[in-house]
Amino acid sequence: MSGRMDSIIGSVGRVANVKVRNDDDLNDRLNHLYTTGILIIFTVVVSARQYVGDPIRCWCPAQFTGAHVDYTNNICWISNTYYIPMDFIVPEDISRRNERELTYYQWVPVVLLLQALMFYIPCLLWRLLNGQSGINVDRIVSLASEAQYESPEVRMRTIKYVVRHIDRCLDNQRESRHRCCVKLRHVLSAKLSILCGKRYAVHAERLPVHGLQHVRLQVLEDLVTGTEWTASRRFPRVTMCDFEIRQMTNNHRYTVQCVLPINLFNEKIYIFLWFWLVFVSMLTCYSFTSWLWHMVFPTSRVHYVRKFLKIMDRLGTGPDKKLATRFTMEYLRHDGVFTLRLIGKNSSDIVVAEIVSGLWDMYRSKKSIQIRNTTLPTNGHESEGEDV
Fold it and tell me: Global pTM?
């Protein structure tokens, strides 16, 4: 399902000359790509219905001309209507009518667009800070994703390039770790999709939209019992409207009954959004907990790396296990393991295993060079040469 959705979005992106990035996982794309796209589509649908069709139609007195009818429809749409159930008597007190006034339906497109922006802002923050972290995550993950479909020769060259690129990025970060600001910057950027993106996505889903309050258990009960939604208090189809028309020195007040066809669309849209956001919220909470677990507990990162070393038959017993721990904690660190996990989310475990194996070989060769350089001064001849 993920691959099919990504291919569809990718095709649309190519037509629109927009590059689909790979520096995230499926849950992130559900938030900033699919949910944002759905909200924008709904914004266009509701806006077209409001500004192209007839969002409201009022039943006017018989003496009203066409101009009067147009004025009534416009004034009732702009000044809001109020809802009184058919089996209730319309109160004579104007203040009691105003208490039942509906003020939201003109703002539905704006609220939907704001929701779409709220879902996309974390993605923008992640990509802005990721560019300052020293690791081009999008480039690395894209190359690794494409490598699984290449020929064996091209695949091996791509894997070697990715390994060298990750090694250089990790070396650059180690050299700049003594700078407090740089260190803080790359730590924030590497964790933003976990601590910021998913958390803001949850807050965006809690945006206090009037329509989302409608569904709740009542809709679930109606679905089970088969009750038709014909008398919704949140999205009423038939409302009342009060307005005045000035004729010379006299003001005539009229009360008309209006139909809001736009609420038929609003209700169905928010019913779908409620279930969709509940689904995305559950996946986001699970993903947030999973990433937080992997980030906080070092043993999780060590087990993750050891798993791929065992797949490639590169891990022995005793000293190798201790060296694998140092390889994970000192060489890869948070950012390296985080990048490997993103590669695994966007490609396959075989690609990750090959990259880990390449990094492991590079790390062991560097350790061997360090050990030789450390033991050289113990020899008298080398020491004299070094002093010279």
Answer: 0.73
